[in-house]
Each structure stands twice: as C-alpha cells, then as structure tokens.
C-alpha cells in the first residue's frame, strides 16, 4: 500500500513505530514516485529544521556566567577604593603634620628681611666662607602631588583585586570565543563534505558512499577516497576537524587514491591497515543498517533523524564521545543536510550513542531507526545473527 502524506511526514521526523517505519522505508526504496513525494515534502519542512538549528546554536552561545557577576565586581572595586581613601584620610588627620620643605623656605625668607624692606634670603646671606647656593626647593603644588602619587599597600591590593576579577571575567569569554570559532570551522568542513556526499548520491540513485563487504573499501573511512577520487572533494583538509588539528589530535594527511588502496590490499596488509586508519580523517561515517537479514547502505532520503557523519569517537570518554573539541560535545551531519552541535553522542529519545548500535556493538544499525557512525578503520560487517531480536 502506498504510504500517505502523514506516513511520509512521520517517516522524515522519525515519529513512526518500528514496523510502520520499516514498511514506509521499503516503499521509499522500491517506488520512485514515493521517493519524489518524500523529497518534495522534505523541501517544505526544511525551513523548520533550519529554525531549530539556529535556535539551538543561539542557546549554546548564551553567556553562562553567574547572573550579576559584572555588577558585583564593579561594586567590590568601588567599595575597596572608598575604604582605602577613607583610611588614608583618617591616618593623615591623626598624625602630627610635618612642616614641608617649601614652608621652611618661606619662613626663612620672611625672617631675613633688611631694615629698608629688601628681602635677603637667609640661605644666601653673607657667611664666613662667602655666599652659599640655595638648595633646590619643590613648589607646594608639586610636593602635594608627589605625596599623593606614592603607592601604598592598599593601592596594590585594590589593583590586584581588579586584575584578578578582570582575568576571571575575560579569560573564560576569550576561551569560549576561541572554542566557538573552532566549532564553526568544524561545522563548515562537515557541510562541505556533506554537499559532496549529496552530489555523489544524486549521481548514484540517491545512495551515499557505501561500505564494501570485502576489499580495501570495507571500512567507514572509504567515503573519503571515493569522494576525492571522484572529484567531489578537492582538498584533504575538509576531512579533518579544525579543533582536532589545532589540539594535535589529528594531523592532516593526503587522502590515498583508490589505486593506492588496491595495491596495498594485494601486496601489503600492514600498509593497508595504516591507510585505513587515517583515510577517513577525524570524522566518523555512517555504517548503514540491517533490514531483517539484508544490509542496507546509507541512502539520501532527507530524513532529519538519521546521522551521516560526526566528529570521530574516543574510547576514553563516556558514550565514546568525541575528543575533537576537548570533550565539549561534537558536531553531527544529518541526512537532511543540517549540521548540529550536540553536548553528547547520546542523542534521540532513547539517548543511545551514535557510535554503537542498539545492541551496544560497533557495527551497522540493528534496524532502519538505528543510526550508527564509525571511525575510519571500523567495519560495518558482522553476522546477521547479532541483529536478530
């Protein structure tokens, strides 16, 4: 029976039951007319998916500093400065006032006045040894400025408090800005590779690069040499997460050609293993899924719930989360072309990790709703018995 528009909409949104989803999936795979209707429906709801993506990004960019931190910092600095000034004024009032050097000079001048009213400074009155040069005197204004310019312990304490507050406020913001720039650069690379995959699928009956059962292309990293050799990607750096490269987790390497892989497969298994380890870059690629006992490679049907690529997993983190962004989440490319950032590899209603299938195995999905992506050297193939309920 031909699926209705409601069935196709539920299929795109991943809202159907397992059996109903499988029935629609078969109809989509076998009927070009249903495929056309599905793609048309996807174009209509695509703006909604973009809106959700923009909203999620906006939420991630919200400032996560404690509320009122900047206000409390300014109040603290003002209070410290006021208390320091009051303490200094109290000290100056209580201490005996010393006569300044300039005042002494004025008093000496007043005392040394001749009988006819001519002022003769005492410092230059005749002496047994002749005249002596008057000492250099500082004006009262300069003396006061010099007194006020002297730094005290309280001044250093206030300055240190201001500096520490500035570092506490600005350093996380600068770090967050740098991480956000790397995150966006990684998303751009995923979009570029995603566009190449969509172009490849358009030329291959809506099928993305599939993992071969035998031979040098029997691992997830096969997508990269296939796209590069076919001219769909022109630069190797697009296969690498910018953050992973800058953190030293990945080192960009030339993508091996299909001929090089085939030659290594025939003559040098060790070299083939090395090439398969690196040829997928720092991203993980779809391992496809099983429908009953039949393996199905990744298809381009514009479904918003199916994962096509993501930052590569790490066995050292929970849920095998990616370490590309210092463990702070990962970027994911979905079948509808959207790239979204997730805090963890455990996504969806069931919170299953995208790096293992429903049975906890690093292999192809157990059914059509089980999205799994694997690192470059991961194979999709296991005995179908592993996927039977």
Structure description:
With 389 residues, the chain is an alpha+beta fold. Among the domains are: 1-55, no CATH class; 187-387, no CATH class. The chain has 11 helices and 9 strands. The chain has helices spanning 5-13, 18-30, 32-60, 69-94, 101-111, 140-149, 153-202, 223-229, 242-246, 258-267, 269-278; strands spanning 283-286, 289-291, 294-296, 307-311, 330-334, 339-342, 346-347, 352-353, 373-374. The strands form 3 sheets. Strands 6-5-4-1-9 form a 5-stranded antiparallel beta sheet. Strands 2-3 form a two-stranded antiparallel sheet. A two-stranded antiparallel ribbon has the order 7-8. The longest helix has 50 residues, at 153-202. The chain is elongated, with a radius of gyration of 37 Å.
Task: Present the secondary structure layout.
Layout: H1 5-13, H2 18-30, H3 32-60, H4 69-94, H5 101-111, H6 140-149, H7 153-202, H8 223-229, H9 242-246, H10 258-267, H11 269-278, E1 283-286, E2 289-291, E3 294-296, E4 307-311, E5 330-334, E6 339-342, E7 346-347, E8 352-353, E9 373-374
Antiparallel strand pairs: 1-4, 1-9, 2-3, 4-5, 5-6, 7-8
Helix pairs in contact: 1-2, 1-3, 2-3, 4-7, 10-11
């Amino acid at each position: 029976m031909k699926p209705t528009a409601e069935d196709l909409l539920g299929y795109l949104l991943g809202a159907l039951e397992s059996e109903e989803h499988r029935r629609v999936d078969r109809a989509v795979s076998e009927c070009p007319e249903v495929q056309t209707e599905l793609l048309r429906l996807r174009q209509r709801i695509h703006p909604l998916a973009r809106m959700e993506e923009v909203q999620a990004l906006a939420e991630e960019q919200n400032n996560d500093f404690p509320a009122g931190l900047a206000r409390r910092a300014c109040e603290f600095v003002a209070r410290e400065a006021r208390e320091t000034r009051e303490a200094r004024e109290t000290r100056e009032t209580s201490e005996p006032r010393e006569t300044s050097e300039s005042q002494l000079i004025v008093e000496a001048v007043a005392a040394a006045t001749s009988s006819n009213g001519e002022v003769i400074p005492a410092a230059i009155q005749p002496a047994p040894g002749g005249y002596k040069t008057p000492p250099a005197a500082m004006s009262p204004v300069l003396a006061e400025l010099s007194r006020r310019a002297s730094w005290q312990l309280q001044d250093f304490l206030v300055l240190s408090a201001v500096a520490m507050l500035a570092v506490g406020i600005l350093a996380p913001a600068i770090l967050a800005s740098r991480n956000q720039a790397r995150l966006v650069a990684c998303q751009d690379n995923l979009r570029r590779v995603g566009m190449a995959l969509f172009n490849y699928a358009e030329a291959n009956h809506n099928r993305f690069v599939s993992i071969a059962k035998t031979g040098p292309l029997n691992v997830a990293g096969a997508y990269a040499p296939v796209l590069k050799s076919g001219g769909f990607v022109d630069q190797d750096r697009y296969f690498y997460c910018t953050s992973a490269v800058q953190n030293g987790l990945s080192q960009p390497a030339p993508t091996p050609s299909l001929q090089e892989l085939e030659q290594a497969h025939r003559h040098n298994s060790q070299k083939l293993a090395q090439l398969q380890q690196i040829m997928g870059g720092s991203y993980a690629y779809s391992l496809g899924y099983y429908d009953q006992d039949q393996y199905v490679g990744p298809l381009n049907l514009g479904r918003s719930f199916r994962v096509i690529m993501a930052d590569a997993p790490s066995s050292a983190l929970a849920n095998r989360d990616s370490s590309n962004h210092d463990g702070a989440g990962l970027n994911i490319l979905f079948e509808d072309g959207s790239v979204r950032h997730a805090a963890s590899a455990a996504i969806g209603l069931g919170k299953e990790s995208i790096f293992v299938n429903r049975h906890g195995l690093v292999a192809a999905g157990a059914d059509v709703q089980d999205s799994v992506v694997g690192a470059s050297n991961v194979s999709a193939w296991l005995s179908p018995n592993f996927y039977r309920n």
